[in-house]
Design a protein that fits this description.
This protein is α/β, with parallel strands linked by helices. It has one domain: Rossmann fold (3-Layer(aba) Sandwich), CATH 3.40.50.720. 29% of the residues lie in helices and 14% in strands. InterPro entries: NAD(P)-bd_dom_sf.
Length: 297
């Protein structure tokens, strides 16, 4: 298939491109050409800004995977340009779209966040991250109908991705893992390679609708035990590090976000590798000399 990837050279996006090339697809990248420009020299590149993506009017594709859509006006402009130029639009969304942060077992039909009164669409802040994803999903659904899919994910782990990178680094260097979250905190994550394969599957098979692309719920303590099991004599976890790092609230006010129902994604083909395999691969990646990127939060 002829695939267009918006982004594609950072974190999860590079896994999407690697998976597409592995499967023999004809890939075009659209990005600013600033992040890892040396990657994928064999693919066609369209260089431009999301705010002015007119270069997208020069081609046609069977499907697009949007890895870089955050600001609503930019996604709207891309959608307008690509409406009659692509067969299917797969959008990388977020589990941050849900209105409730405490309700367990939410599926894709759960209520979504409203747009905050007076918030501008063209200025990105973390306060409107969730509402922006909701609005982008809505406008893509209105533009493409059954030709659109939205993939809602949270923590994404694995090579080139920041989440849980501190754990992989600690295990690789035989130091103590740290967690500012409480041991009983529920958490869901997905390996970047599994998520990339799922994004590609939805696009090539033209599957529509929203999907909670997350793994099973674990407690942080259970997850830590799984990660520690991949190296001999791993030190105990430090559950009270004095670090300025993104962490989950101890009062349970965000627990529902990591107890989502993922059955629709599993039925559509999401495949999840074991925690131990994820940890082992991350540790090996760090031991090979790689450094996880810093968290975005």
């Amino acid at each position: 298939m002829r695939l267009l990837v918006l982004g594609g050279t950072k974190n999860l996006g590079r896994h999407v491109v690697e998976a597409a090339l592995r499967d023999g697809h004809d890939v075009t990248l659209f990005n600013r050409g600033l992040t890892n420009p040396e990657l994928f020299p064999e693919v066609r590149r369209l260089v431009g800004e999301r705010a002015a993506p007119d270069v997208l009017a020069t081609g046609e594709w069977d499907g697009v995977i949007d890895m870089s859509g955050f600001l609503v006006p930019q996604v709207r402009r891309s959608a307008e340009l690509l409406r009659d130029r692509v067969g299917h639009y797969t959008y990388m969304s977020s589990i941050a779209v849900y209105a409730s942060k405490v309700t367990p077992g939410m599926d894709e039909s759960a209520p979504l966040l409203d747009w905050p009164d007076g918030a501008p669409e063209d200025e990105f802040t973390m306060d409107i991250y969730g509402p922006s994803k909701v609005r982008c999903e809505s406008l893509l659904s209105a533009t493409f109908g059954e030709r659109a899919a939205a993939v809602r994910s949270g923590f994404v782990v694995g090579p080139y991705n920041p989440d849980f990178g501190n754990w992989g680094t600690a295990l690789a260097h035989e130091t103590r893992m740290e967690s500012a979250a409480r041991p009983s905190q529920p958490v869901q994550y997905v390996d970047a390679r599994d998520l990339a394969d799922f994004l590609l599957r939805l696009t090539t098979e033209r599957v529509s609708g929203p999907f909670n692309a997350v793994g099973p719920t674990r407690t942080m303590a259970e997850l830590a035990d799984a990660w520690r099991s991949v190296v001999p004599d791993a030190a105990p976890v430090d559950w009270s590090p004095a670090v300025d790092r993104f962490h989950l609230p101890h009062d349970g006010s965000n627990d529902g976000t990591f107890r989502l129902d993922n059955r629709r994604a599993l039925a559509a083909g999401l495949r999840l590798r074991a925690d131990e395999e994820i940890a082992r691969d991350y540790v090996a990646w760090v031991q090979d000399g790689n450094v996880p990127p810093p968290p975005p939060h």
